[in-house]
Specification:
Blueprint lengths: L1 E9 L4 H17 L7 E5 L9 E8 L15 H12 E10 L5
Antiparallel strand pairs: 1-3, 1-4, 2-3
Helix pairs in contact: 1-2
């Protein structure tokens, strides 16, 4: 089992807006049955940590390429992605193997 975490550096003062968009994107993928429950969190501002950072994570049984032919990306993701690009400086993805009892 794997934990996938996407990290976004929001433009100054835009972390909450970015987090709201990222949260909606996670829900769209969940509703489409393409993602396990997601968590969205941010740092800076009211809590210690790097300023204006937004994170979303979820678990996956296996790591697969998102642009594979059998994966239909929900339509709403494109417009949400456009909104997100307006408030984010850069983003990247991290992958972690989860330690399980198996």
């Amino acid at each position: 089992m794997f934990l996938v975490r996407r990290v976004f550096k929001a433009k100054s003062g835009q972390a909450r807006r970015a987090a709201a968009i990222v949260r909606r994107m996670g829900k769209v993928y969940e509703e489409a049955g393409q993602r396990s429950p997601t968590r969205v969190y941010l740092s800076g501002g009211m809590v210690p940590g790097p300023a204006d950072m937004v994170y979303i994570d979820w678990t996956e049984e296996s790591l697969r390429i998102p642009f594979r032919s059998d994966n239909k990306i929900p339509e709403e993701i494109s417009s949400l992605g456009g909104e997100l690009r307006e408030v984010v400086e850069y983003h990247y993805v991290e992958f972690y193997e989860l330690l399980t009892d198996e």
